[in-house]
Amino acid sequence: MLRFDDHIAVAVSGGKDSLTLLRVLRKLEKRFPRATLTAVTVDEGIRGYRAEAVKLAKKSCKELGVDHVVVSFRELFGKTLDQIVSSKKELSPCSYCGVLRRRAIQMAAREAKANKIATAHNLDDEVQTILLNIFHGDAKRIARVEPVLVDPAGRFLQRVKPLCEIPEKEVALYAYVSGIEFQTCPCPYLETALRNDIREMLNRIEERHPGTKFTIFRSMERLRDSLKASMARTELRNCLRCGEPTTGSVCEVCKMLDRAVVA
Ligand code: SF4
Questions:
Q1: Which residues line ligand 1 (CB under 6 A)?
Q2: What is the percent of the chain with per-residue pLDDT over 90, rounded to a whole number?
Q3: Most confident of 114-128, 132-146, 180-194, 225-239
Q4: Which of 31, 79, 196, 226: disulfide with 83, CB 3.0–4.6 Å?
C-alpha cells in the first residue's frame, strides 16, 4: 500500500479510526525520511457535530506535528451538507455526503501535492460496504471496493485503506489504550442510513458466529477479479461542467449540486 517516498494525504475526520490511522502512519513516517504526511479534514457542514471533530483533528495534528488542511463543502461546493439535505430529500444524507466528501478529499490531496490518499476504513466498514452494494444491486461498486484503488490512467490519486483488515473493536481499543482523544457522538444522519441497519445486523451475526466479517471480506477478495473481468471497462472523460473525470457527460457531484439547487 505504501512506499518509502510517498506523500500521503490522510483523511482525518476526528473519529477514532482516522486519528488511529494518523498516529500509526506518523510513527511509520518517522522511519522514512523521504515520506511526507498531510492530514485532510473535510467539514461537511453538519450542525452540532462536525465542529467538535474538526477541533479534535486539529489538536491531534498539532500534537503529532503533521501538516493539516481543512476544507469545507461550503467553500468547495457553495453549500453545507445540512443545506443540501434540507433542499432535496431524493437521496439519503449519506449518499450526498459520501460523493461530495470523496471529491473534497481528492481536491485537497491534489492541492497538497500528495500522491496517495489513505482512509481509515476498518474491517467493519469494508464488510458493510460490500453488503450495502449488494443490497443496492450495484455490481460495479461491488467490484470497486478494494483496499488499494488505482486508476490506471492516473486521473484519480491512488487510495489505500491500511486498516481494512482490522476489526472496528480493535481500532477502538488501540485508540483508548493510546489515549487518543476522539469524537464519540455519532453523526445525526447516521440513523437514517441503511448502513446503520447493516452494521447492527452484522454485529448480531458476528456475536453468534465469530469470524463472519473476515469470511465476507475474504470471499470478496477471491471474487473481485472474476467480477472485474466480467465487466466492460468504463472509459473516463471530463465532466462538461467541472472538468473532473467521470464516466458520463456530467459527474455525480455536479448532478447532486444541481438537484440541490433546483429544489
Ligand atoms: Fe456523512 Fe452519513 Fe457519515 Fe454523517 S453518517 S458523516 S452524513 S456519511
A1: 44, 93-94, 97-98, 187, 189-190, 193
A2: 71
A3: 114-128
A4: 79
pLDDT greater than 60 at residue 136? yes
Q: Which of 79, 101, 190, 191 to mutate to test the pocket of ligand 1 (most atoms within 8 A of CB)?
A: 190
CA 260 to centroid of ligand 1, rounded, Å: 17
Distance (Å) from CA 32 to ligand 1 centroid? 34
Nearest CA to ligand 1 atom 4: 187
pTM for this model (two decimals): 0.91
Angle between helices 168-177 and 16-29 (to 10 degrees): 70
The three-point CA angle 186-72-169 to 5° equals 30
Give, in order, the Cα–Cα distances in Å from 91 to each of 103, 129, 169, 193, 257: 17, 17, 30, 10, 12
DSSP sequence for 86-104: HH--SS-HHHHHHHHHHHH
C-alpha distances (whole Å) from 202 to each of 124, 158, 195, 198, 205 are: 8, 29, 10, 6, 5
Which residue's CA lies nearest to atom 7 of ligand 1?
Answer: 94
**Res 263 pLDDT > 50:** no
Ligand 1, pocket-test mutation among 42, 100, 187, 191, most atoms within 8 A of CB: 187
